[in-house]
Amino acid sequence: MRRAQGGRRRRRLPLLLVAALLAVPGCAGAGALGADGGALTIAIVANPQMNDAIALSDRFEREHGVELNFVSLPENQARAKITASTATQGGEFDLVMISNYETPQWAANGWLTDLGPYLEANPDYDADDFIPSIRDALSYEDSMYAVPFYGESSFLAYREDLFEQAGLTMPENPTWEQIAEFAAVLDDDEAGVAGICLRGKPGWGESLAPFTTVVNTFGGQWFDQDWNARLTSPEFREAAEFYVNLVREHGQVGASNAGFTECGTRYTQGEAAMWYDATVMAGTNEDPASSKVVGKSGYAPAPVMDTEASGWLYTWSLAIPASTEDKDLAWEFLSWMTDKDYVRLVGEELGWNRVPPGCRRSTYDIPEYREAASAYAQPTLDGISHANQDETMTEPVPYEGIQFVGIPEFQDLGTRVSQQLSAAIAGQQSVDEALRQSQEYAETVGESYRETR
């Protein structure tokens, strides 16, 4: 893997960033902040799989006599709220939902509980069942500090029926040039069908996730090995122009405000012919309770240009902040929500297409799940297995991460750059203007790393 070299090190979240995050407003789901005695407060992201966990959590409450209070927030708000609370050891949350971006950094800062002793004391939980790349991404110094709820890479969903009607054939390993050509043919304003749906909503975990994979496969970098910002390089500019032009010309209406949720709604309601995003989308696409396109989709690998692969690696996971008072009780719920038995509970109670994917290898041995996920199970596993820097990047970089830059400053830097990208998608400025401003942001970050090497 093309990992960090030279001056790579963990850095604490800048104090100014923590202060800014503390000002972000939040909204509670079930219950209020704070835990008392036999109660747990869990901060989660308001995604479909997490909503399912809330719906099923009464089983845990009855079995353990515990009150569960969920604070469910949209992704951008959740990131800010959870970061601020955990960084300041505020104690609002007994468990937090974070990703492989935060886990190793926060573990190095001492903000999280080492789960190694719990895993060793509970062999039936079977941590070895986790997909290795997912497990490694949630580890620091060979110990896990979070456990995955679901894992993902990225791929392309496409309407097989619309392709057939248009006389098109999806290649086994499509390029972005081919996808742009398909989008132009399939774009149908009269029928209300966009050629493709791509995220444009600001947020380092929103539009920048798919966008950065496009940058990677076009040969771009956020920083070179000497921490020089590269956002105005020819490769980065070509990727940005391609992404912006594609979504402006053949993407969904209101693209500059569309994220994962919005694209999911459009695709499942038959309003997009293709959708490039997280592999976890497939469960929603194939859910009869919410989708109008069940059984009509094919799933192709993330499109490429100059690399062998271009999918990302990501996992929403559960961690116990170091400030949590009753860590044993927190572990009880954490292990319940990420255990093999929970997978079967979701499948039997809610449907096998709603099972959290890309996490445990044993999930893919369940006959009912294999049948329900036949269209996307293997593409998901293939995407995760190829999600490494050697296959998804053309040149080494000094940071870890594929769809993100694994440094604390990226929460602020990525959000700023995403705002510039969104403005370009909305037609408020040119791509060159967006990149010039983004380069200035990145140069400030890169300079701080060069100074401390």
Automatic annotation (TrEMBL):
Signal peptide range in chain numbering: 1-30
Signal recorded as keyword: yes
Keyword Signal: yes
Alphabetical list of Pfam families matching this protein: SBP_bac_1
Coiled coil (residue ranges): none
Keyword vocabulary terms for this entry: Signal
Compositional bias (Polar residues): 432-441
Region (Disordered): 432-453
Protein name as annotated: Sugar ABC transporter substrate-binding protein
